[in-house]
Amino acid sequence: MSRRWSLAVAGVAATYLLLVGLVVVVLLDLLLCEAAAEIESTNSTVRDSEIYVVVIEGDPVVNYNGSLPGLVATAEFYSHAWRAHHHSSNVKDAIQKYKNYLSEKQDQLLKAFFKSQEYTKLYSYHHLLNGFAVKLTAKQAELLEKTTGVIAIQKSYKVKKTTVHTPEYLGLVQGIWEEEGGPEKAGEDMIIGIVDTGIDPTHPSFAASGGHGGQQHMLYTPLPNFRGICEVAEEFPRGSCNGKIIGARHFAAAAIEGGAFNASLQFASPLDGDGHGSHTASTAAGNHGVPVIVDGVFYGNASGVAPRARIAVYKALYRMIGGFIPDVVAACDQAVADGVDILSLSLGPNSPPGASSSTFLNILDLALLNAVKANVLVVQAAGNGGPYEKSMTSFSPWVVSVAAGVDDRSYPNTITLSDQTVLPGIALAPPTRGDRLYGMVLANDAVMGETNALYTPSDCQEPSLFDPALVHNRLLVCTYSFNFIFGGSTMQQVVNTVRALGGAGFIMVVESDIAGSKFDPIPLPIPAIVLTVTSDSQVLLGFYDKYTEKDAHGKPILFGAEVKIGDGQIARCSGQAQQVALFSSRGPDVADFQFDNADVLKPNIMAPGYLIWAAWSPLAIDNLNYMGQRWAMISGTSMATPHVAGLAALLKAKNPLWSPAALASAMMTTADILDRNGKPLLAQQLSGGTTPLLEPATPFDMGSGALNINAALNPGIVFDAEHGDYIGFLCASEGVRAWQVNAFTGGVCPRVAQRAADLNMPSITLANLTGIRVIPRTVTNVANHPENYTISWTDPADVVVAINPTTFSIGIGSQKTQVITFTLRATRISSFVSFGNIMFKGSLGHTVHIPISVINKQL
Questions:
Q1: What is the dihedral of CA 394, 395, 400, 403, to 10 degrees?
Q2: H or E stretch at 852
Q3: Cβ of 798: how many Cβ atoms within 10 Å?
Q4: pLDDT at residue 10 in the model
């Protein structure tokens, strides 16, 4: 009998079941009689069935070593040099034969289990996992889990969606773009796989040729190493994949079987009906110099980070419903099979998957581990659960988890009162016309007759509530309430109301600083301003009351308050360093659903993710503020993630033989932790008001720091890791058994036991420092010449660090690695997290650093 793992759901938020793995040879011909005999008595109605992902014995394509007669090894095709020959017909034939073999064995198991009963198989997984998605009742799932050849079962769960200025802000224009021959060549022939809500193929950011911003784009020639296809549908016609968009598919089987998919609403094609996918794709690899025009206003020229990279689209998220893990895994599986270089995932679960075992054994992370084995760098959003600790929704050390930073661009505005008082506000809106003052009218004072209980007059959503004569040519004063945040009130409808009444514009006040802190500026076509601070709102309302006369019944009879609104459409760039965005999820990383701390630093790195201009779909209906628009300026770690994916593509284009771990290390160890004045970067924290509290950022806020791509191009040394190193990490992780690691990954735990913190990561994180810990790290010289390095460091509080050696010479060729040992000793018990930093300074100018995070110390 094969080993099996019971995966019960635990905890309030858990819709997740952990998975375990894969072994070398598929044994599906073995006895299935016991389970099959009980199947007929366990069938239930369709409404009792749910979708499960089932992992069975046998290597997926990326692991298969050719051990079966007549089948050629496929794992070797995923070496660092696989692109050189992976497109050849004999390689394709070998992979297809093995895939057919896996599918046949999967079907044999299902047919034997269900006997004569019908069943619904949604997906076969071949490349990253050997398994399938199938509909089962709870009883059937319990029986199938006990069947010989089945490794584990996991119930489906949902995942959710977690630029004009950032290329300049990140220094691309005079940096790597210039080195690669300008934006016309930056990222040439790299393929970024975007698992998201699809793409709008008609958007100019994805045009195959044509001039934008004075630049002439060259046509995109076919790439022989890419094996993907382009789905065709009525709304996604032939020609949508034009070379820039190199492939496009959609994955919706789980959403359909779960009853959440409506083809007329979500589109059964790669077309983006949400906007999120087009936004992330254009941020990573949109064309250079595309004009951003919203409501006739020019906001600048947009560019993706890797403007000549190709985009491969894998639609697995859908507007209004998000996505389901069987669809996401199928998308990732196909992306690796197609030959992407970088996999960008601006998605994640609501909370950590888990039950009784490790977070790192959830199905998505295990699939992504095999993606890394196939030489694909995986970048994932950290989540938007900040500023609360342990809010990460990206967990594993083989994935680059991205935090969101606030860059230096803002759109400030002012309103000037007739007494010369100037109040600050925000709104991407034009100024009031002419150099003159306009009268104001409070929404509640302009109400005509009885109000409709369905509407709140102060939200200014319904023009029929107001007297046009009172609003005409005046500024309507409304309230930015929580209805704009959690309800259905929109700024667009305020615009419609003002226009219908002939108003001159509008002013938004707030009754709460918390509500004001939630406001994100959006493009508006008429004069407008939002006063996001309660005190400023009170000044304006006091001014209004002072100059407004009312009769004995309290009805206004004279409106004397006059003001003018400034121009809010002009961006201001302060040059300040990034700050960790308030919403960005924070560490420490968690090892299980019980939220025990892990010996892994998360997040890993920070990139701009606040108010990012990028492509949008005019079909999108999820974000009411941008309905019908082709551009949107939105925030989230979803926006930060494609920045890192695009930068990683630039880095890999220059260093095609670097492993995913080396690429990640180069970005992390060269990230900025100080601003231009040498002061620590700051993180936004809750303040109780509209302005966030700023505190020095820690590695649990920003990981290794803010991305510095020009420094990452030439790190000097990297902390490299291979698939076997991650196997050792899993074997050393709390709650993980050796047979589980072997079953899922095909790897064998090392005879000499190690600890999870020994993984060669560009950081040191200890969840529980007890006594003295000795931690090894190996650095690899990726420069073309020998160099001498000196190590300096700062100790975490209540910890003493010793390093051996503190100086070393590193060569090239067989002398290109150096082992370093770090000894950490706690000096006293402390319940507080403490942080330190280790700096490597080379004699030829290379400087890299790694953070130290020590928590739960015990003597």
A1: 50
A2: strand 847-854
A3: 17
A4: 31
Average pLDDT over residues 524-549: 93
Give whole-number Cα distances, 370 to 96, 378, 536, 682, in Å: 18, 10, 54, 36
Contacts of residues 558-561 at CB distance under 8 Å and 24 or more positions apart, as own/partner, are 559/439, 559/440, 559/441, 559/470, 559/474, 560/439, 561/417, 561/418, 561/439, 561/440
pLDDT digits (tens, 9 = 90+) for 339-396: 999 999 999 887 766 544 688 988 899 999 999 999 999 999 999 988 999 999 999 9
Q: In 463-619, which ranges are continuous DSSP H helix?
A: 468-471, 491-501, 513-517, 534-546
**Cis amide linkage into residue 588, ω under 30° from 0:** yes
10 Å Cβ neighbour count for 47? 7
Determine the 3-state secondary structure of 601 from DSSP.
Answer: coil
What is the chain's mean pLDDT, rounded? 85
What tokens appear for 321 in the block?
């419903």
For residues 530 and 519, the answer to whether their CB atoms sit within 8 Å is yes
Q: Are 476 and 443 in contact (CB under 8 A)?
A: yes
Q: Is the peptide bond before 805 cis (omega within 30 degrees of 0)?
A: yes
CA–CA distances in Å: residue 302 to residues 214, 399, 675, 751, 805: 13, 28, 26, 53, 47
Q: Return d(Cα 150, Cα 335) in angstroms, integer.
A: 25
With CA atoms as reference, report the closest residue to 501 among 539, 471, 523. 471
User: What are 617-648's pLDDT values in tens digits?
Assistant: 999 887 777 888 999 988 899 999 999 999 99
> Of these residues, 127, 203, 212, 276, which one is catalytic?
276
pLDDT at 574: 66
Give the confidence band of 811 by pLDDT, cuts at 50, 70, 90. very high
**pLDDT computed for residue 588 by the predictor:** 95
Helix (H) / strand (E) containing 726: helix 723-732
User: Is 276 a known active-site residue?
Assistant: yes
Tell me, what's the pLDDT at 179? 55
Indicate if 196 belongs to the active site: yes
CB atoms closer than 10 angstroms to residue 174: 10
For the chain, give the percent of residues with pLDDT over 70.
87
Looking up tokens 């200025």, which residue turns up? 165
Question: Among residues 537, 638, 659, 834, which one is catalytic?
Answer: 638
d(C-alpha 644, C-alpha 244), whole Å: 19
| E strand map for 635-740 | 682-685, 693-696, 717-718
* Per-residue model confidence (pLDDT) at position 411: 82
Q: Please state, in angstroms and as integers, the Cα–Cα distance from residue 640 to each residue in 334, 344, 384, 394, 605, following that order.
A: 24, 11, 11, 14, 10
3-state SS assignment for residue 637: helix
Contact 130, 56 (CB under 8 A): yes
CB within 8 A of 538, min separation 6: which ones?
none
Q: What's the pLDDT tens digit per position in 252-286?
A: 999 999 888 988 889 999 999 999 999 999 999 99
pLDDT in tens, 566-587: 998 887 776 677 899 989 999 9
Amino acid at 374: A
Task: State how far Cα 573 lies from the chain centre.
Answer: 25
Binned at pLDDT 50, 70 and 90, residue 194 comes out as very high
Could you give the C-alpha distances from 726 to 178, 658, 669, in angstroms and in order?
A: 36, 17, 20
CA dihedral 259, 264, 268, 273 (to 10 degrees): -110
DSSP-assigned letter for residue 706: B
Closest CA to 170 of 642, 586, 523, 569: 642
Catalytic residue among 196, 274, 327, 365: 196
- In the chain, the domains with their CATH numbers are 33-155 (no CATH), 159-408+574-654+672-705 (3.40.50.200), 412-569 (3.50.30.30)
Q: What is the 3-state secondary structure (H, E, C) of 4-58?
A: CCCCCCCCCCCCCCCCCCCCCCCCCCCCCHHHHHHHHHHCCCHHHCEEEEEEECC
pTM here? 0.86
